[in-house]
Design brief:
Elements: H1 2-18, H2 45-48, H3 63-75, H4 80-103, H5 107-133, H6 139-162, H7 167-179
Helix pairs in contact: 4-5, 4-6, 5-7, 6-7
Protein backbone atom coordinates (compact mmCIF):
# COMPACT_ATOMS: atom_id res chain seq x y z
CA UNK A 1 0.00 0.00 0.00
CA UNK A 2 2.78 2.40 0.92
CA UNK A 3 4.62 1.45 -2.24
CA UNK A 4 1.61 2.41 -4.40
CA UNK A 5 1.33 5.75 -2.60
CA UNK A 6 4.99 6.58 -3.33
CA UNK A 7 4.58 5.53 -6.95
CA UNK A 8 1.54 7.82 -7.28
CA UNK A 9 3.42 10.74 -5.70
CA UNK A 10 6.41 10.09 -7.98
CA UNK A 11 4.20 9.96 -11.12
CA UNK A 12 2.43 13.18 -10.14
CA UNK A 13 5.78 14.85 -9.45
CA UNK A 14 7.13 13.81 -12.84
CA UNK A 15 3.91 14.82 -14.58
CA UNK A 16 3.78 18.32 -13.05
CA UNK A 17 7.49 19.03 -13.26
CA UNK A 18 7.88 18.34 -16.98
CA UNK A 19 4.59 19.70 -18.23
CA UNK A 20 4.96 22.92 -20.15
CA UNK A 21 2.24 25.20 -18.86
CA UNK A 22 0.84 27.29 -21.64
CA UNK A 23 -1.37 30.30 -21.04
CA UNK A 24 -3.10 32.33 -23.69
CA UNK A 25 -0.70 35.09 -24.58
CA UNK A 26 -0.93 37.93 -27.00
CA UNK A 27 1.86 38.80 -29.34
CA UNK A 28 4.38 41.44 -28.33
CA UNK A 29 3.44 43.74 -31.20
CA UNK A 30 0.07 45.24 -30.47
CA UNK A 31 -1.35 47.62 -33.00
CA UNK A 32 -2.58 50.81 -31.42
CA UNK A 33 -6.12 51.65 -32.43
CA UNK A 34 -6.65 54.89 -34.23
CA UNK A 35 -8.99 57.24 -32.40
CA UNK A 36 -12.39 57.53 -33.99
CA UNK A 37 -15.68 58.96 -32.86
CA UNK A 38 -17.48 56.62 -30.52
CA UNK A 39 -20.54 55.27 -32.29
CA UNK A 40 -23.76 54.78 -30.42
CA UNK A 41 -23.99 51.05 -29.79
CA UNK A 42 -26.83 49.09 -31.31
CA UNK A 43 -29.09 48.17 -28.45
CA UNK A 44 -31.01 44.94 -28.20
CA UNK A 45 -34.42 45.94 -26.87
CA UNK A 46 -35.12 42.39 -25.73
CA UNK A 47 -32.17 42.46 -23.33
CA UNK A 48 -32.58 46.09 -22.31
CA UNK A 49 -36.25 45.93 -21.38
CA UNK A 50 -36.60 42.30 -20.33
CA UNK A 51 -39.35 40.99 -19.75
CA UNK A 52 -41.19 43.58 -21.85
CA UNK A 53 -42.02 42.89 -25.47
CA UNK A 54 -43.96 44.85 -28.06
CA UNK A 55 -46.88 42.44 -28.18
CA UNK A 56 -49.75 43.70 -30.33
CA UNK A 57 -49.07 46.75 -32.46
CA UNK A 58 -51.39 49.25 -34.12
CA UNK A 59 -51.42 46.86 -37.07
CA UNK A 60 -53.38 44.30 -35.07
CA UNK A 61 -57.16 44.24 -35.06
CA UNK A 62 -57.24 43.67 -31.30
CA UNK A 63 -54.88 46.54 -30.46
CA UNK A 64 -57.79 48.50 -28.99
CA UNK A 65 -58.14 45.81 -26.30
CA UNK A 66 -54.53 46.29 -25.31
CA UNK A 67 -54.94 50.05 -24.98
CA UNK A 68 -58.25 49.60 -23.13
CA UNK A 69 -56.53 47.29 -20.61
CA UNK A 70 -53.70 49.81 -20.17
CA UNK A 71 -56.17 52.67 -19.68
CA UNK A 72 -58.15 50.75 -17.06
CA UNK A 73 -54.95 49.85 -15.25
CA UNK A 74 -53.93 53.53 -15.35
CA UNK A 75 -57.25 54.56 -13.77
CA UNK A 76 -56.57 52.22 -10.87
CA UNK A 77 -53.25 53.89 -9.99
CA UNK A 78 -53.76 56.70 -7.53
CA UNK A 79 -50.38 58.23 -6.57
CA UNK A 80 -48.90 60.89 -8.84
CA UNK A 81 -45.43 59.38 -8.72
CA UNK A 82 -46.83 55.93 -9.47
CA UNK A 83 -48.85 57.36 -12.38
CA UNK A 84 -45.66 58.95 -13.74
CA UNK A 85 -43.87 55.62 -13.43
CA UNK A 86 -46.72 53.86 -15.23
CA UNK A 87 -46.74 56.47 -18.00
CA UNK A 88 -43.00 55.95 -18.54
CA UNK A 89 -43.71 52.21 -18.63
CA UNK A 90 -46.32 52.83 -21.34
CA UNK A 91 -43.83 54.95 -23.27
CA UNK A 92 -41.44 52.00 -23.20
CA UNK A 93 -44.20 49.78 -24.59
CA UNK A 94 -44.93 52.30 -27.36
CA UNK A 95 -41.21 52.52 -28.25
CA UNK A 96 -41.00 48.73 -28.48
CA UNK A 97 -44.08 48.71 -30.71
CA UNK A 98 -42.56 51.47 -32.84
CA UNK A 99 -39.39 49.42 -33.25
CA UNK A 100 -41.41 46.46 -34.54
CA UNK A 101 -43.33 48.70 -36.95
CA UNK A 102 -40.16 50.43 -38.15
CA UNK A 103 -38.51 47.08 -38.81
CA UNK A 104 -41.67 45.97 -40.62
CA UNK A 105 -41.58 49.09 -42.88
CA UNK A 106 -44.95 50.39 -41.68
CA UNK A 107 -43.99 54.06 -41.53
CA UNK A 108 -47.39 55.65 -40.92
CA UNK A 109 -48.22 53.42 -37.95
CA UNK A 110 -44.66 53.74 -36.61
CA UNK A 111 -45.05 57.52 -36.61
CA UNK A 112 -48.43 57.29 -34.85
CA UNK A 113 -46.90 54.98 -32.25
CA UNK A 114 -44.01 57.39 -31.68
CA UNK A 115 -46.57 60.19 -31.25
CA UNK A 116 -48.31 58.03 -28.66
CA UNK A 117 -44.99 57.53 -26.83
CA UNK A 118 -44.50 61.30 -26.82
CA UNK A 119 -48.02 61.73 -25.41
CA UNK A 120 -47.30 59.17 -22.67
CA UNK A 121 -44.12 61.03 -21.76
CA UNK A 122 -46.09 64.30 -21.58
CA UNK A 123 -48.50 62.63 -19.16
CA UNK A 124 -45.56 61.31 -17.15
CA UNK A 125 -44.04 64.78 -16.99
CA UNK A 126 -47.25 66.36 -15.69
CA UNK A 127 -47.76 63.56 -13.13
CA UNK A 128 -44.14 63.91 -12.05
CA UNK A 129 -44.51 67.67 -11.65
CA UNK A 130 -47.60 67.07 -9.52
CA UNK A 131 -45.72 64.51 -7.43
CA UNK A 132 -42.78 66.89 -6.93
CA UNK A 133 -45.11 69.65 -5.78
CA UNK A 134 -46.73 67.38 -3.20
CA UNK A 135 -43.43 65.69 -2.20
CA UNK A 136 -45.08 62.36 -2.98
CA UNK A 137 -42.07 60.55 -4.49
CA UNK A 138 -40.41 57.74 -2.58
CA UNK A 139 -36.84 56.70 -3.40
CA UNK A 140 -37.83 53.38 -4.97
CA UNK A 141 -40.13 55.09 -7.47
CA UNK A 142 -37.45 57.69 -8.25
CA UNK A 143 -34.92 54.97 -8.94
CA UNK A 144 -37.36 53.04 -11.14
CA UNK A 145 -38.27 56.12 -13.18
CA UNK A 146 -34.63 57.14 -13.57
CA UNK A 147 -33.66 53.62 -14.67
CA UNK A 148 -36.47 53.45 -17.22
CA UNK A 149 -35.74 56.92 -18.57
CA UNK A 150 -32.02 56.23 -18.98
CA UNK A 151 -32.76 52.93 -20.76
CA UNK A 152 -35.25 54.70 -23.04
CA UNK A 153 -32.67 57.38 -23.88
CA UNK A 154 -30.17 54.71 -24.83
CA UNK A 155 -32.77 52.85 -26.88
CA UNK A 156 -34.03 56.00 -28.60
CA UNK A 157 -30.50 57.06 -29.55
CA UNK A 158 -29.82 53.62 -30.95
CA UNK A 159 -33.03 53.67 -33.01
CA UNK A 160 -32.20 57.14 -34.31
CA UNK A 161 -28.82 55.94 -35.58
CA UNK A 162 -30.26 52.78 -37.12
CA UNK A 163 -33.27 54.44 -38.78
CA UNK A 164 -32.46 58.04 -39.78
CA UNK A 165 -35.84 58.38 -41.57
CA UNK A 166 -37.49 58.60 -38.15
CA UNK A 167 -34.97 61.03 -36.68
CA UNK A 168 -37.51 63.85 -36.17
CA UNK A 169 -40.00 61.76 -34.21
CA UNK A 170 -37.31 60.00 -32.22
CA UNK A 171 -35.67 63.32 -31.39
CA UNK A 172 -38.97 64.62 -30.01
CA UNK A 173 -39.20 61.49 -27.82
CA UNK A 174 -35.62 62.08 -26.61
CA UNK A 175 -36.42 65.73 -25.88
CA UNK A 176 -39.37 64.63 -23.73
CA UNK A 177 -37.14 62.13 -21.95
CA UNK A 178 -34.57 64.83 -21.23
CA UNK A 179 -37.29 66.98 -19.65
CA UNK A 180 -38.15 64.14 -17.24
CA UNK A 181 -35.61 64.92 -14.55
CA UNK A 182 -36.23 63.92 -10.98
Amino acid sequence: MLKRFFVLIFVLFIFFSFVNVSFAKTSKTVAKPTPSPTPVPIVNSFELFWPLAAGKTMQSKVYFLKTLKEDVRGWLIFGSAQKADYDVFLAIKRMLEAEVLIKGNVADLANKTLDSATSDLDKANSALTSAKNSSDIDQGTKDEINNRVSNLKLFGSSLMNQYPDYKGKLQSVLDKLNSLAI
